[in-house]
Amino acid sequence: MSSYDPSAIEPKWQSYWLKNKTFKTRKDEGKPKYYVLDMFPYPSGSGLHVGHPEGYTATDILARYKRMNGFNVLHPIGWDAFGLPAEQYAVKTGTHPRTTTEKNINRFREQLQMLGFSYDWDREVNTTDPDYYKWTQWIFLKLYDKGLAYEEEAPVNWCPELGTVLANEEVIDGKSEVGGFPVIRKPMRQWVLKITEYAEKLLEGLDDLEWPESTKEMQRNWIGRSIGAEIEFPVADHDETIKAFTTRPDTLFGATYMVLAPEHHLVRDITVSDQRKDVEEYVQKAGLKSDLERQEESKKKTGVFTGAYAINPVNGKEIPIWVADYVLAHYGTGAIMAVPGQDQRDWEFAKTFDLPIIRTVQPPEDFDGEAYVGEGKAINSDFLNGLDITEAKEKMIKWLEANGAGTKSVNYKLRDWLFSRQRYWGEPFPVIHVDGEPKPLPESELPVVLPEIDDYQPTKTGEPPLAKAESWVKTTDPETGKDALRETNTMPQWAGSCWYYLRYISPEFNGGPVEKGEEKYWMPVDLYVGGSEHSVLHLLYARFWHKVLYDCGLVSTKEPFQKLVHQGMILGEMEYVAFKHNGAHVSAEKAEELDDVERVKVSQSDVEKRGENFYLKGTEFQVESRAHKMSKSRGNVINPDDVVEQYGADSLRLYEMFMGPLEQVKPWSTKGVEGVNRFLSRAWRMIVGDQDEAALLDKDAKVAPEQLKVLHEAIKKVTDDIENMRFNTAISALMIFVNEARQWDALPLSIAKPFVKLLSPFAPHVAEELWSYLGSDQTIAYEAWPELNEEYLIEDSISYPVQVNGKVRANIEVSADKAKDKEFVIAEAKKQENIQKYLDGSTIIKEIFVPERIINFVIKPG
Ligand code: ANZ
User: Fold this and answer.
1) pLDDT tens across 481-517, in order?
2) pLDDT digit string (tens) for 576-602?
């Protein structure tokens, strides 16, 4: 027999699955359904990286496991293929993004097939396919109909380098998330989606989802609900009032000045003529800064006085009105009542401009900080004095409402979603402009197909590249025949991924984004696996669209993704550094204290792990160990193609699941791949044998009870672990099985078969090969999962540690049926020579007996 050779096995089974459409899925009311979804990849030019197969193997294990447990499994894949890189490549080389995208998709598809994932390839979707984006446009029309899409001339994050606006979410520290280019503020006409209207529903929906708590919390923070009051401050000698949102109405007696955002609509009206020049200058400068810069806490506060005063409604005091950029235009009302006694930003501002500070909460005696933000009793606050913050808030809101000076109010940090981009490679909007007014196209005009153009370069003015397709832009209104211009912005990359999980359900359906009956059967997604970098944006946007579709009666569930798991990042191979001083090794600790320390890289074969630390082999010199993110510049990128070529897809799959808990960040280890590869070879030899070793399999061998116990232990552990997505320990259980089995004289067929089934979700190619070797002419994919029989697990004997005064002095074995018989077990324990030694000549004060756990004799000498 030949030895385990994945390169001979794997392509064979891959084409078998494809040819036989083994994983084609159809609705079947007679079976329970299981919808297991991967975050579909962006088909980049560099192909799959090892992070992809991590999540994809996890979902594939569940898909395969559920099929074997009688579920009808939907396990699809597709391509999130609009986006910048293909367009930037087009700008550089003139290659149409479609060409690049197609090529990349073909490569990705081949790579995924080479890893043996059990996708239903007849359901593949591609967001750049007009048959797909027709429905993305269609959903946009629904949003428009519902008043959830609107045009706005607004200051946006403009990135000159990328030639596009970016959503707030895509700007980090004033730089673009992609590329890290500077982002400035610039007013432009944009499409915006009213996600804020769904803020409350998006918050509420989180409670019942089986998602990582940290992800839910990130979404909650992003939505950022605060409860407080909106208070009205009349402007002295004016008809105007300024509304201010505050989360601390209890501090109203401490409001010593007000601040308007530079963009606030009243700034012009109320500024007195003496101050006009200064205020205008200040407003102009502030307009150039991003919200982030404006809120930076470390920065010195800037501002300018308007010369006008507001009247504090609760005590009639006149307080000065300032303009300052630490107040944002788009949060709350764009104006604040400033309470320097309780708010640190206000404190800093008051100190800078010498404004009065009144504390309205009593700080503890030893408090020597600036603004006091903690709990305490109200002071300097008339009818609130002596109340706790919560009580004082309530009482103040009642007072405001009774006196027509304000109302209770809820605010969200969430902003409406800036939904247009000045790009070519995106979905065109199904919108025309007639006489300068936007008008949605009728459904019959869909899809609005991207026109061919030669020049993909965005313009420096912000005019989108599509504006250059003049003959496309100029059109007529299909309803009135009037001249019209097409919208030249395109949708952001998030659009296609907002609803792709619905398209998989009925990818060919022509009557809408998804067929109703199929949707009702398959939704919600039972398990969604993908990176935690999508904790907020993709997952929030998709939930938003889903909720709109739910309100339109198009989907039957309120939430799309019932359970969510993030796979942890895979880092590069661990690196080890030893320390030398004057040519001799020193430990990492010693190196800290010395100057002139030389750091030398050492290879993994020269170090050994003891406890949590690594040492130079055979020495006391501890080495430093760490892993870095994989990156081209570090040269530590592992290419899945190479791993498959050398060890096979089953080894790659098995290794990525064996590295550690799925959610954890973990370093790559080539040694680890070799380890699981050896395990697969051993499993192979056990059943098939090879040149050096005869197979253990004996089809005529009778089964011994001990063998059943070992098998059923594996069944129990593997089943349990798959259910709980603890794939690493499931694989350990398979390894333990093989190690135990190799000590037997023979492996009976009735033990070998269930073992191969247990292995199959993890290493499907070798499992199929072994399955056919064991005599089947059918795929293993739909074989019944081995059933656990607890009876085989019952221990025939139980071991008790025997302690004397809390120290273990002996171990005894008692048969399982007598294990709870206290008298019997204690008598057995006393017979032990090593126990007698202690008991002789002592007085037993107490005999402690914990059934099936421990015995302890408490004795007193003499
Ligand atoms: C008075 C006050 C007193 C405040 C106090 C806080 C503490 P969150 O919790 O994030 O919702 N604020 C309101 N609108 C703002 C804007 N457009 N730009 C900057 N700051 C703004 O924050 C709400 C608090 O942030 C509000 O409550 C307001 O300051 C400030 F002891 O009002 B507070």
Assistant:
1) 999 999 999 999 999 999 999 999 999 999 999 999 9
2) 999 999 989 988 888 888 888 999 999
SS3 855: strand
For the chain, the domains span 28-126+494-566, 139-219+417-486, 225-411, 575-626, 640-792, 795-860
Distance (angstroms) between ligand 1 centre and the Cα of 537 equals: 25
Q: How far is the CA of 245 from the centre of ligand 1 (A)?
A: 7
Q: How far is the CA of 756 from the centre of ligand 1 (A)?
A: 62
CATH number of 795-860: 3.10.20.590
Binning pLDDT at 50, 70 and 90, where does residue 604 land? Answer: confident
343 Cβ inside 6 Å of ligand 1: yes
Kindly report the protein residue whose alpha carbon is nearest to atom 7 of ligand 1.
343
**Å from CA of 165 to ligand 1 middle:** 28
Q: To 10 degrees, what angle do helices 670-687 and 727-741 make?
A: 40
- Model confidence at 524, in pLDDT bands (50, 70, 90)? very high
Q: Residues 6 or more apart from 344 whose CB is under 8 A from it?
A: 370, 371, 373
pLDDT at position 297, please? 63
Ligand 1 atom 11, closest CA: 226
What pLDDT score does 175 carry?
87
CA 203 centroid distance within chain:
17
Q: Which of these CATH numbers, 1.20.140.150, 3.40.50.620, 3.40.1190.20, 3.40.50.12370, describes 28-126+494-566?
A: 3.40.50.620
Ligand 1 atom, smallest distance to 373 CA: 31
For the chain, the 3-state helix, strand and coil shares in percent, each to the nearest 5, are: 40, 20, 40
Is the CB–ligand 1 distance for residue 248 below 6 Å? yes
**Tens digits of residue pLDDT in 307-361:** 999 999 999 999 999 999 999 988 899 999 999 999 999 999 999 999 999 999 9
**Atom 25 of ligand 1 has which residue's CA nearest to it?**
246
* Ligand 1 pocket test target in 245, 344, 412 with most atoms within 8 Å of CB: 245
Tell me, using a 6 A CB cutoff, whether residue 136 lines ligand 1.
Answer: no
Q: Please tell me the pTM assigned to this model.
A: 0.86
Q: How far is the CA of 232 from the centre of ligand 1 (A)?
A: 15
Q: What is the pLDDT of residue 414?
A: 94
Residue 101 has phi, psi (to 5 degrees) of -60, -45
Compute the CA torsion angle 157, 163, 164, 168 (nearest 10 deg): -30
Place of tokens 């090879």: 690
User: What is the average pLDDT across 631-638?
Assistant: 90
3-state secondary structure of 803: strand
* CA–centroid distance, residue 278 to ligand 1 (Å): 25
**Best CATH choice for the domain 139-219+417-486 from the list 1.10.3210.10, 3.40.190.10, 3.40.50.12780, 3.40.50.620:** 3.40.50.620
The pLDDT of residue 761? 98
Indicate the DSSP class of residue 421.
Answer: B
Top CATH class, 225-411: alpha beta
Tell how far the Cα of 341 is from the centroid of ligand 1, in angstroms. Answer: 13
Measured in degrees and rounded to the nearest 5, phi and psi for residue 690 equal -150, -165
Question: Which of 319, 331, 415 has most ligand 1 atoms within 8 Å of its beta carbon, as the pocket-test mutant?
Answer: 331
Confidence of residue 88 (pLDDT cuts 50, 70, 90): confident
| CA gap 835, 848 in Å, rounded | 14
